[in-house]
Amino acid sequence: FTTPIIYKYTDETRGELYRNFEIRPEISATISDKVYPVAFTHLYFRRAASRQAITLGIGGNSYKALPPKVVSNKAKAQQELESARRNARSQGKQAWYGWLASQARLVAARQALQYATLNLQSARAGVATGIKTELDVLKGQQQHYGALRDLARARYESTLNHFRLKASIGQLMDEDLVSVDKWLVQAPEQ
């Protein structure tokens, strides 16, 4: 019989794959226990076959084949391992993109605070010269305190996402959790 040298197939999770060309030694097989004909019952045969140990002779060496249940457990464990890898990869990506987004929000909050501070200063200067009213100063203060609140929220999210990212790659240490005190107690930016 003939077999193509290049064998291509598609796996649902890994995509298009090629099987390598292999030259294998002669194989022989022997069954350790007596196997009864299928004529008894199909159910009995399936039970007996699932407990059989098959000895394979490959190139002068002997190997014992595992029962189908052991092979299916191995396949199940491999699938669970691959699933865990995919979940870890997904969580790592989510943590990375969350951290990037929180950094962008932190930069935006700092810029908004600078703008609100300048607006408040100009409103106060305008009141001193008579160009603006006290209402403008109150609106400037409201905007300034809102920007401070947004900056504090952005710092909190950035810190939280930093720890999520470290945890997803397995680099979160006790020292990191102790250092959070320094980050949270830090004086707000003016």
Notes on the protein architecture:
- The strands form two sheets. Strands 3-4-5 form a three-stranded antiparallel β-sheet, with no helix packed on it.
- It is of the alpha+beta class and 190 residues long.
- Helix 2 packs antiparallel against helix 3 (134-168) and helix 3 runs antiparallel to helix 4.
- A hairpin with a 3-residue loop joins strand 1 and strand 2 (15-19).
- The chain is elongated and about 100 Å long.
- The protein has helices spanning 42-51, 68-129, 134-168, 174-185, and strands at residues 7-11, 15-19, 27-31, 54-58, 61-65.
- It contains four helices and five strands.
Tell me the series of helices and strands, N- to C-terminal: EEEHEEHHH
- The percent range for helix content is 55-70%
Tally of strands: 5
Query: Gap between N and C termini, in Å?
Result: 82 Å
Total helical segments? 4
Largest sheet: 3 strands, antiparallel
Strand content: 5-15%
Strand order, sheet with most strands: 3-4-5
Structural class: alpha+beta
Low-confidence stretches: 36-51
Give the radius of gyration. 34 Å
For the residues shown, what is the average pLDDT?
A: 76
Global geometry? elongated
